[in-house]
Amino acid sequence: MTHSTVGRSCVLVIASITLAMAFVGRVVAQDQQASASGDRTTMLSEARLLINQGRPRAAIEKLKPLDEPGRTDVAHLLGVAYYHADDHLRAIEQLAQVVGKLPEGSLEQREAVQVLGLANFVVGRFAEAVPLLEATRVWAAGNAELGYVLGQAYVQTQQPDRARHVFAATFGVAPDSPAAHLVAAQMMIRLEFEAAAETELKRAIEKDPKLPQAHALLGQLAIFRGRLDEGIALTEREIALNPANAMAFSQLGDALVRQGKWDESIAALQKSIWLNPFYSAPYIVLGKAYMKKGQPATAEGMLTRAIQYDPNNRSAHYLLGQLFQQMGRLEDAKREFAIAERLQGQAGR
Fold first, then answer.
1. Given this model, what pLDDT does residue 92 score?
2. Domain boundaries of the chain, sorted by first residue
3. pLDDT in the model for residue 37
4. What is the model's pTM?
5. Does the pLDDT value for residue 66 go beyond 80?
6. Are 95 and 119 in contact (CB under 8 A)?
7. Of 32-41, 225-234, 257-266, which gets the smallest average pLDDT?
8. What is the pLDDT, as a whole number, of residue 161?
């Protein structure tokens, strides 16, 4: 997974959330003293208010004329503003030079450490982010979003045990429990650390062979790697443990389609839809299966239903375009291919 994707997937609104209200009170106090302290204090107060109001670029313009060597208060506030303006490298540059100079344990230092850790995370400097996020965790232990980010940083730096402990705390489970291994594995799969996820899932199953979802995720990994027989067996084991798992039936149907077992796949996918008729994936795979079986009208119905539930699903539009092309409905095919191309372009931004 790319650094930019990791940054987008992260709930980064936690930057300064815990501290914002404290700083609002401080700004009010500063405003009351502004006439006595001069223009600099007034401008710092106004810049802080602009940041709190979601106008970081205006804050930057107000702070730039004040930025002089040795002005830790200005550099600190500039770093926070640059972070909120999505200029993370400049945020790092500003904050790294002052974070050790701010009063120990002060609100300013806490904010600088937190934002510097998040900025490093966003640009992919995970090793640098970890100690800063851990330092923030000391006084923000209950912040779930912080745990989510720190756990990801541990995954990215290939520290699976630490990642599991952080995710366990975030999700409220014991760190060495089967559930903790399962949660860690799910997060690792999202971050495309499949080998680490597989290890966690196997440990989860060793501790609890009947743990829901563990076999399904192992099956998902096996199918992704082309080990279809293994993936099918694991998914069927999940279904035996939880016969109401619509996602497992959808996964099973997908694997069977890849093996060319059209009738078996249709049976599994139909069960998935019966359990959850609002999930688009089984309709798309059913569309593929019915196309292969030479039943274009049924395939069209399935793909159309998929688009009804998920209008921005590129695969559904593209497959429907292929189907229309096979049916000689060239204008309809052209329309669907155009939609698929547009969605592909949007996904790449």
1. 96
2. 1-157
3. 46
4. 0.83
5. yes
6. yes
7. 32-41
8. 97
What pLDDT, on the 0 to 100 scale, is given for residue 40? Answer: 77
CA atoms within 13 A on the CB side of 2: 4
Q: Determine the Cα–Cα distance for residues 270 and 273; give it in Å rounded to an integer.
A: 5
Using one digit for the tens of pLDDT, what is the confidence trace for 222-231?
999 999 999 9
* Phi, psi for 278 (deg, rounded to 5): -105, 10
d(CA 342, CA 312): 10
Q: Spell 62-89 as b/e; 16+ CB within 10 A means b.
A: bbeebeeeebbebbbbbbbbbbbbebbe
Average pLDDT, the chain: 89
Instruction: Give the 3-state DSSP-derived string for the chain, with helices as H, strands as E and coil as C.
Output: CCHHHHHHHCCHHHCCHHHHHHHHHHHHHHHHHHHHHCHHHHHHHHHHHHHHCCCHHHHHHHHHHHCCCCCHHHHHHHHHHHHHCCCHHHHHHHHHCCCCCCCCCCHHHHHHHHHHHHHHHHCCCHHHHHHHHHHHHHHCCCCHHHHHHHHHHHHHCCCHHHHHHHHHHHHCCCCCCHHHHHHHHHHHHHCCCHHHHHHHHHHHHHHCCCCCCHHHHHHHHHHHCCCHHHHHHHHHHHHHHCCCCHHHHHHHHHHHHHCCCHHHHHHHHHHHHHHCCCCHHHHHHHHHHHHHCCCHHHHHHHHHHHHHHCCCCHHHHHHHHHHHHHHCCHHHHHHHHHHHHHHHHHHCC
Query: Is the pLDDT score of 31 beyond 50?
Result: no
Q: Average pLDDT for residues 333-345, to the nearest whole number?
A: 95
- Architecture of 1-157 per CATH? Alpha Horseshoe (1.25)
